[in-house]
Amino acid sequence: MANLYDGKMAAIYDAMYQTFVNYDDEYAFYNNLITENNASSVLEIGSGSGNLAKRFHKNNQNYIGLDYSEDMIAIAKERNKNGTFIKGDMRDFQLNETVDCILITGRSTSYLISNQDINKTFECLHKNLNNEGIIIFDFIDANRFIPFTKENPVITHEADYQDIHYIRESHWDTNMSLENFMLEWSAKYYALINGKKEMIENDFSTVRVFTRNEIELFLYLNHFEILQTIDRKTYAYDTYVIVAKKIKL
Ligand SMILES: C[S@@+](CC[C@H](N)C(=O)[O-])C[C@H]1O[C@@H](n2cnc3c(N)ncnc32)[C@H](O)[C@@H]1O
Fold this sequence. Notes:
Elements: H1 7-20, H2 23-36, E1 41-45, H3 51-58, E2 62-67, H4 70-79, E3 85-87, E4 99-104, H5 115-127, E5 129-140, H6 142-151, E6 155-161, E7 164-173, E8 182-193, E9 196-208, H7 212-221, E10 224-233, E11 238-246
Parallel strand pairs: 1-2, 1-4, 2-3, 4-5
Antiparallel strand pairs: 5-11, 6-7, 7-8, 8-9, 10-11
Helix pairs in contact: 2-3
Bound molecules: S-adenosylmethionine.
């Protein structure tokens, strides 16, 4: 698990991502899919610092957020004073009531690194959905991302937060000894102080990217029928977004 979502890094994450993710567009995109599929109650997994939650609340939608990180949830609650956020793990959670739609946003599927993680997550989504319920999630496309990391060994993102300029340098290592299409992601965070780069965090995490066929098979094995596959470019990654319907057992 990355340190990126803990302590002071949660606030820096929140600031940085708002500069390179357009959360209005992100909300419009997901909300269209939700409405097209006649879903009303929504659980967002990987709700993070509550930027999408804010848009769901503004439109008075029936929304719950779930995240692993207490610090991200604290920011989400601060942003959405009346919102419901659960600290939980997508691989093992139980809602009080089932919902019509479960979203996994912001490429949070990248943290499902083993096949067991993925199967446990889909099993959990299945049992927390209403009959005919849908899941919507994105994942990083291995076939495009791995060559991209080879051609771009260091990827830099910059953002301003509370009058400080932050720089993030990311490097993804396709360590061939790792299982599946796992990558070691190292991200160095710097603050620019008096014109000099000072390192504030050196974050390491193992993430996984997927091929489309892998995801199709995992869904089949876990009793979901794919309704739509959308090829979607996000700020730094080529992703697919899947909409799939629960098959009643
Ligand atoms: C890249 S962030 C995305 C946050 C938000 N969706 C956004 O777009 O800004 C990934 C989020 O997934 C959460 N996360 C990672 N693994 C998780 C797990 N197993 N269960 C629940 N949340 C998890 C992290 O704490 C983090 O908030």
